[in-house]
Amino acid sequence: MFAQSPDQQLFEQFTDRFLDDHYPIGRARELAQAQSVFEPDVWRQAAALGWTTPLVPEEAGGGSVSGNGLADLLIVAAAFGRRAAPGPLFGANIVAAALGRWGSAAQRGGPLAELLAGEAVAAWAHATTGGPLRQGRCRVAEVRSGAEVMLNGPAGCAEGAADASYLLVTAGEAGRTHYLVPRETLGVQLTPLGSIDLTRRFHDITLRNVVLGQAAQVGAPGSAAEHDAYLLDVLAVLLLGEIAGATRRAFEMTAQWLVSRYSFGRPLGSYQEIKHRMADMCTDVEAIEAVAARAASAIGTGRADGQSWACAGMAYAGRRAPEVIQDCIQLHGGIGVTYEHDLHLLLRRVAVDTRLFGTPSEFTRRLGSQAAATPAASTPQLTPAPQPGSQVRFGAGKSEPKSALGTVGPGLSVEQFAERAGGWLAEHMPPADPAAGHFFFTDVSTRTDSHDLARIQRCRQLQRLLYDGGFAGICVPREYGGQGLTAAHQFAFNRELRGYDYPLEIQASTFIPALALLLEFGSEEQKLRHIPAMLRGEEIWAQFLSEPDGGSDAAAAATTAVRDGDRWVLNGSKIWTTGAWYSDWAMCLARTDWEAEKHRGLTIFTLPVRSPGIEINRIEMSNGAREFCQEFLTDVSVEDRDRLGEAGGGWAIMGRWLHHERTISGGSPYVTSAGGRGDDAAGGIMRLVQLAREQGTLDDPGTLELIGEARALSLVGDALVRSVSAKMRSGDLPQHAASMLRLFGGLSTARRATIGFELAGAAAVVWPSGCKPGDPTGDPTAGERVGVSGAHIAAGYLVRQAACIGGGTTEMARNVISERLLGMPREARADDGPFRAVRRSGPRAIGS
Predict the structure, then answer these.
(1) Which of 548, 465, 557 is nearest to 503 (CA)?
(2) Which of these, 808, 690, 822, lies nearest to 756 by C-alpha position?
(3) Which of 360, 281, 370, 371 is nearest to 316 (CA)?
(4) DSSP-assigned letters across all residues of 161-177
(5) Do you find a cis peptide bond into 513, omega within 30 degrees of 0?
(6) pLDDT of 616-671, one tens digit each?
(7) Which of 1, 12, 71, 533 has a Cα at 20 to 30 A from 570?
């Protein structure tokens, strides 16, 4: 599940085989009544497999398979989760990590050596850490007397304490310290606890006048707070591994059940409601695995953002994993709630992992607190929109480069490329305004067309700047004006781009799908004519795809193309075209054969948007935006050289068109994106923090939880994009998996818009008259600033569902996931035969 390298794959195979031999999932019922589930001989064998050493430095006797021991342990934790297996995996590794990093020579030579060999196990009294998730719940007091220390107080519950040789405890008030307490020490009291998990044994630990020598101290006095933060992050990754393994196992069991179980003469999996539920569950399972792997990578390599990834994973998985398994039970019917079925064993394991060490709400608030800690000065204020004809500022005090910098060099490694990109961006690119966002989502009650055209002109200039700097078309072959590098180089550039302005509004349609489709299906002449112009910002493209009576059924296109010599004549209507009114070219799907089957009589054309016979009507949305358009094509003449692919072969290209469209949420190597520049939608994290700060609610726990939820969705979405994109490139997932990105992106964007609306309260429905985003005049009062933020958030909330409609609805994404990715039965077709005979709605225009 998490194995990346051949060595990790072998490690995973041995781990699975060992656990299948000793702890198949059904054995949990056998162990349920046992006083102890610990089997010393089995654990010694497990230690020989390398389960106890990954978090310990080599000089202390440890070692890992991959170089990232936490990533290796994630594999083992997932295997435990799949079987609800017993064993001291968490305690032994947490304590071994502490001793390996901060223990004395005597502790490394004694207790640590025993733990690594599997001759002893340990338990961690995590409730004594005093960390942000458990502040004040358990306190162990320490009283020093010479070379001895006396510990008193409740240490809370710990797994496997009765079987442990050692307990790791945090003691003290100010300047807290770790102590390694031998369990047999006089004064250590254990009280058995009940648990929902059948294969785990918990005890409440109380220390009464426990006297220890100085040798029991782990690390320097007062160092425990910093050390516990690391250990809690490690624990979170291991928990995520178990959660991911258990959830994946439950999902696989359910998918198999739905294929083999019949109801009313049909497979259960053929009902659309069930298929859509499975699509949601599939996306959740993939998202949990993605964020778990990302957290393991960040924490295992010591990155500063590791804690954020751990919190995001536990916040998201803590809410979704139990619900996924409960849905699996629901889809199994009555058998799912019986003791003999295995699903409840997985649910029990996930219930403990998502509650005992911190609830989803606690992890979510912790994320919100991190965002709230951002200084007010670092939250950019709204800035005036550029005026038509204005030039981009190229860095602080810089002037526009007078000549192109050329290519970046094909021999640069990803790291070298990222370093060069970071330096170039700092020198040449203007800073982003995180509060501004994509203009489609902002308040437009007082905005003019000139404002939007000025932003598009700015995007053209920014795109030209990227081209001149050698950072446009990073994955595009050099013969077409690109850099000829890899997807990894593009993604590295996108990471460096965070914090800078970039041509956001022209990425969709121009670069995906248009540029991507030209690369795949265009003639050499088409590629040379258009792609360099796209990369220079000279051509902005639109998609003439949807039709008034077609909805998400792209193959139902009724726009007609009739051949006339070396030209084609197009007649019909297209709708929901983003930015057609300022675009230069378009890709258009048209029907060239009405007698052929629906999917066989289609052809794709490229055409100038301002061709004679094209009438563009702008559509006013519920928030006042007028970015979408409807086009009427009347005898529009298109040269045959502007046809893309073969006549009648349009649907083969459409498969890739739709694939590229689904990757707009992320993962396309052709898109320049800062990964959510201030989170471009209305629920942007910085905007939420800014709004709460202005309203004086930033310290409210409910506010912090909402901000944290928005942050968690952003991080999990980023992890999902990376994971699914990498798996599609490697062939581990088919291209249809991009629909998971579409589904998650739509739902999470809509939820963030709702979060903003909830936080804004009254400010999102009533605000001071005259407030408008980007008003450069005066110094607004606090009330007016709240009004500006409220107006932005209201505009996003009104069109919230656009995130789940545009680019193919989330319902269609669920169909693709369930039928194409999971192989569930497809819906019966009602559109066979010649397209002329297929029933369809009549043509209409907006407002009719």
Answers:
(1) 465
(2) 690
(3) 360
(4) GGG-SEEEEEE-SSS-E
(5) yes
(6) 999 998 888 888 999 999 999 999 999 999 999 999 999 999 888 877 767 789 99
(7) 533
